[in-house]
Amino acid sequence: MPALSVIPDDLPPSIVESIITQIKDYQANHGSLIKVIGSETENSVLLHPIGVSVFPTLFPRKLFDTAIELQHIYNELYCKVAEDEEWLSTTTRALRKQEPLIDALWTVHEEVERRRRGNGTMRYPRQEVSAGVFRSDYMLHHHQDHDSDGDSDEKNWMENVSLKQVEFNAYSCAGGSHANKVVDMHRYLTRTNVYDFELEQTENRQTRNNICVNLSSLPRNRTIHGIASVLASAHAMYGPPKSCQHPTAVLMVVQPNNFNITDERPIEYALWNWEEGGCPIPTYRVEWQDVLQYTSLAETGELLFHPNQGRAGRKSVEVSVVYHRAGYETKEYADEVGMEIRIRLELSRAIKCPSILGHITTAKKVQQALVVPDVLERWLAPDRAGRIRETFFNTYPLDNSTPTGVRGRELATNLLAADNYILKPSLEGGGHNIYGSDIPRFLDGIPEAQWSAYILMERIRSPRDIYNVLMSSDGIVADEVVSELGIFGTCLWKSTNSRNGGSNCEVILNNVGGWSFKTKDALVDEMSVVKGYGCFDTPCLVDTSN
């Protein structure tokens, strides 16, 4: 068995089976589940447990703390980028020609601005405040020391790793509720001494590490509260209803046939049960395709939601905050209805989480452009820019008009070189990346003009010999694993003055809203728990001295 684990080498299978039984019970009782679409009957629905790790996975405490600290800088950066329309437009101009989703978002933005001006008069007053629920994802990168032997590498593995950003998500960030529940589960199992393997001491017991699981090594996670809190703050900032006769409420826009309700609903429930400020915050859900049917928009900008339209006793509400958990797929904008849905939401007075320009910042092309030397200083002080620049990894465009783009094409089309890279489109939802030796063949199968819709990112090489047991709908796997730490950022910002430049944004609220920790088999490329790649996990934080 590999050395880097909290699991004793000789742990009897019966103990692992006992832990798995307890995990199943916990998941069933706490909604750590995924809905099985198509299973609903008149009086029932099937759900299955979400993938989780059986044990917490080792992670350096120092780098966990660093990721938390850096989120405040990343929040500031993306708030300011979202208000820098000139830079965003220039950066994504070529992408619009190749990526229908980005083109649709810009078309929505342009139509919103056109309608606001009307016949030379301003209608639909602009909402200057925006909200954001961001997530910055990292993996550990192992800097191999070729001069050291295996034992030395094992002993000092935490000294040879650094934090590298996988991607930054600025729209419809998922996984927060699942992550919250799984951390609570591992902390419960720890509190009840399930991981106290000293109780199972045998005469010949030997382990390859001295790392124990205790509550101080498992950080608390309140992501559900963190996300609900920023929505509550936005709701409060919206203020009293402008339409007088209607109360205000948060509106969560969701996708139909939703298997991930146990990640979304807890945020809704948290707002209905909100006690900070003395009263609950009404929160409603509407499916993307139903937005036009169940909402109306006044020329003065108030967005009214009519829950269960036509049913007695359900009063209309004025929407204070639009929380987007849909609208990130190209097909959602494939017709005029889809476009009009987003236009109506954007035209409204409601605070958007996030705005249309905030949505555009999540494009991988934006992430790649921020890696370019000296770009960050457009919005950040040099010392703050330098701190997050340390988390960047080699990333290339695939255009044929810049030296870095030409270099990216050379790497992507070379079979040997491509093995060290990942090809990423500017799409959300997971499962879109192309890996390693598949890249040249993939590019060969699409028109060269479409290459610029992708970016090329060097693979992050995580430390090996970290071990865990993972359980998912595909079964139970005990093997080497790699993990991904995602830090949720929650923020409010206000547009000021010009919409071109870095000084046009006032950050009102800048918080860490929680985090997620996901782990997968080391041989698996993708990391998407809800799509079957990986499991939610909890970091067992260890210090260098361990």
Automatic annotation (TrEMBL):
<keyword id="KW-0436">Ligase</keyword>
<dbReference type="InterPro" id="IPR005615">
    <property type="entry name" value="Glutathione_synthase"/>
</dbReference>
<feature type="binding site">
    <location>
        <position position="520"/>
    </location>
    <ligand>
        <name>ATP</name>
    </ligand>
</feature>
<dbReference type="GO" id="GO:0043295">
    <property type="term" value="F:glutathione binding"/>
</dbReference>
<dbReference type="GO" id="GO:0005524">
    <property type="term" value="F:ATP binding"/>
</dbReference>
<dbReference type="InterPro" id="IPR037013">
    <property type="entry name" value="GSH-S_sub-bd_sf"/>
</dbReference>
<comment type="similarity">
    <text>Belongs to the eukaryotic GSH synthase family.</text>
</comment>
<keyword id="KW-0067">ATP-binding</keyword>
<dbReference type="Pfam" id="PF03917">
    <property type="entry name" value="GSH_synth_ATP"/>
</dbReference>
<feature type="binding site">
    <location>
        <position position="435"/>
    </location>
    <ligand>
        <name>ATP</name>
    </ligand>
</feature>
<keyword id="KW-0547">Nucleotide-binding</keyword>
<keyword id="KW-0460">Magnesium</keyword>
<dbReference type="InterPro" id="IPR014709">
    <property type="entry name" value="Glutathione_synthase_C_euk"/>
</dbReference>
<feature type="binding site">
    <location>
        <position position="526"/>
    </location>
    <ligand>
        <name>ATP</name>
    </ligand>
</feature>
<feature type="binding site">
    <location>
        <position position="428"/>
    </location>
    <ligand>
        <name>Mg(2+)</name>
    </ligand>
</feature>
<protein>
    <recommendedName>
        <fullName>Glutathione synthetase</fullName>
        <ecNumber>6.3.2.3</ecNumber>
    </recommendedName>
</protein>
<feature type="domain" description="Glutathione synthase substrate-binding">
    <location>
        <begin position="249"/>
        <end position="360"/>
    </location>
</feature>
<keyword id="KW-0317">Glutathione biosynthesis</keyword>
<dbReference type="InterPro" id="IPR014049">
    <property type="entry name" value="Glutathione_synthase_N_euk"/>
</dbReference>
<comment type="pathway">
    <text>Sulfur metabolism; glutathione biosynthesis; glutathione from L-cysteine and L-glutamate: step 2/2.</text>
</comment>
<feature type="binding site">
    <location>
        <begin position="457"/>
        <end position="460"/>
    </location>
    <ligand>
        <name>ATP</name>
    </ligand>
</feature>
<dbReference type="InterPro" id="IPR004887">
    <property type="entry name" value="GSH_synth_subst-bd"/>
</dbReference>
<dbReference type="GO" id="GO:0000287">
    <property type="term" value="F:magnesium ion binding"/>
</dbReference>
<feature type="binding site">
    <location>
        <begin position="424"/>
        <end position="433"/>
    </location>
    <ligand>
        <name>ATP</name>
    </ligand>
</feature>
<keyword id="KW-0479">Metal-binding</keyword>
<dbReference type="InterPro" id="IPR014042">
    <property type="entry name" value="Glutathione_synthase_a-hlx"/>
</dbReference>
<dbReference type="InterPro" id="IPR016185">
    <property type="entry name" value="PreATP-grasp_dom_sf"/>
</dbReference>
<feature type="binding site">
    <location>
        <position position="484"/>
    </location>
    <ligand>
        <name>ATP</name>
    </ligand>
</feature>
<dbReference type="GO" id="GO:0004363">
    <property type="term" value="F:glutathione synthase activity"/>
</dbReference>
<feature type="binding site">
    <location>
        <position position="364"/>
    </location>
    <ligand>
        <name>ATP</name>
    </ligand>
</feature>
<dbReference type="GO" id="GO:0005829">
    <property type="term" value="C:cytosol"/>
</dbReference>
<dbReference type="Pfam" id="PF03199">
    <property type="entry name" value="GSH_synthase"/>
</dbReference>
